[in-house]
Amino acid sequence: MNEQLQPLKKQSRSGKAGRSGTQDDIVYAHIFEAILEQRLAPGTKLSEEALGEIFGVSRTIIRRALSRLAHEGVVLLRPNRGAVVASPSVEEARQVFLARRLVEKAITELAVVHATADDLLQLRKMVQDERDSFSRGDRGAGIRLSGEFHLKLAEAAKNAPLISFQRSLVSQTSLIIAQYESGNRSHCSYDEHMQLIDAIEARDAAQAVHLMMHHMDHIDSKLNLDEESASDDLHAVFSHLLQTKGKSPRPAAKL
Amino acid sequence: MNEQLQPLKKQSRSGKAGRSGTQDDIVYAHIFEAILEQRLAPGTKLSEEALGEIFGVSRTIIRRALSRLAHEGVVLLRPNRGAVVASPSVEEARQVFLARRLVEKAITELAVVHATADDLLQLRKMVQDERDSFSRGDRGAGIRLSGEFHLKLAEAAKNAPLISFQRSLVSQTSLIIAQYESGNRSHCSYDEHMQLIDAIEARDAAQAVHLMMHHMDHIDSKLNLDEESASDDLHAVFSHLLQTKGKSPRPAAKL
DNA sequence: GCAAGGCGCATTGTACACAAGCCAGAGTGC
DNA sequence: GCACTCTGGCTTGTGTACAATGCGCCTTGC
């Protein structure tokens, strides 16, 4: 109960996923990271008071951070009933991926035109970081950095509305990956990211888009969206019991 | 100072642009509408306390509404310095329009596949309303309804992320139109909207997309994005003075 | 007369106290 | 024994007080 973070002033400046300095940015970043790293499972209730104690700030700050997370779709805000970590359904996941395809295609085309040398340099650096995370076996950081790569790519496209949309899509994608990714953890391969940068640097739009679409295919295929791992639709979960009554319930179904 | 609205409980349910019932929705809708109808000019300061008095609510509610408006890009939130009505630059306007083209294309293609009979019915009804507003000469309502048409179209496309992005884009577009539209006020012609619905109903994707792109061209061409009507770049504003010094300043330049 | 510095006011940022709304559990009636 | 109701506690929603920050005006020196 009494475990509380440090005074929390500018603790995460340039640390972890933190933005600049204000308190809600810090809270936002920490919660977001916890969700990505699955320390907060989908469906988990996010009590305002509890979070306030943990971070050593008042509910006002927490509330703003939650509102922001809700805007990006990684948290569900239910009026009068508090916030929970979003648990996107298969249908929602499909919609996010469809939207991402559209946006990534546009971003790639724009990046080929507008990316500066500095953009490309930063992109390469991010892929390095990503590779390092995976070799360290830090899955959460890997997912996050992979997302930040795509976000940085959007920035290279130099279109503010697309950047903000991409931010939301990447957040949701990360959550979906964390929730649905099947066993093999070799996702979002940094090789593909590197090739993509090469194509952009060569200003080869067709090739870049081709690579990006291929990349999206890979991400898609790594998820098992066909069979939901855990559903809140009781009928769906127990559908196998409805016909052959005799079957015994699964012994260790992790709900 | 003392002019205040009615108790404001559920006053705008089904009225004007109001959503369901909560207070911040009402405040949000009213401010948004005021911006669209240019009763609030770009750059106007939106004081929390003043708005609170006007709407008869505390700053808490106002703050949420402003935050939401800021998320949609029609209000600019400057830390420690309050909120102002956004005044998109020409460059920002171009970016919004570019993004909209991309999204409208995708939405149209999806709507051709997914629009239900009921969707089409509602769309037709909205075009009717739009036409009525214009014949009444209600410019603000016209812009708003025209935007709502495009938003409804996004809903017909059945993709949640795209809907939310479209909402933001439409809001910003409306603001841009209000700010930049040149004299002739025959914008966003409902004829084009009607034809678009026909093409969608006929499930003719190519034709629908063609019409939509044409529609976007029309909107673009009605704006004079080349010469900014009012700029905050002093060098740009007074560039004509920099060469021929003798010129006298304009007598009644409204800054 | 003009520029720089300091002070006071106004406005936003944060925390907290109170009100309102859900949810769970105990109790009761059928 | 089951279901329904009522109540108590807990969580969120809202208003408000206080702190901090930024801005404009005034003074003062040159």
Automatic annotation (TrEMBL), chains A, B:
The entry's keywords: DNA-binding, Transcription, Transcription regulation
Origin superkingdom: Bacteria
PANTHER family: HTH-TYPE TRANSCRIPTIONAL REPRESSOR NANR (PTHR43537:SF53), TRANSCRIPTIONAL REGULATOR, GNTR FAMILY (PTHR43537)
Protein name according to UniProt: DNA-binding transcriptional regulator, GntR family
Record organism: Pseudomonas psychrophila
Molecular-function GO term, any one: DNA binding
Residue numbers spanned by region Disordered: 1-21
Gene3D superfamilies listed in its UniProt record: GntR ligand-binding domain-like (1.20.120.530), Winged helix-like DNA-binding domain superfamily/Winged helix DNA-binding domain (1.10.10.10)
This protein's record includes keyword Cytoplasm: no
Domain (HTH gntR-type) ranges: 21-88
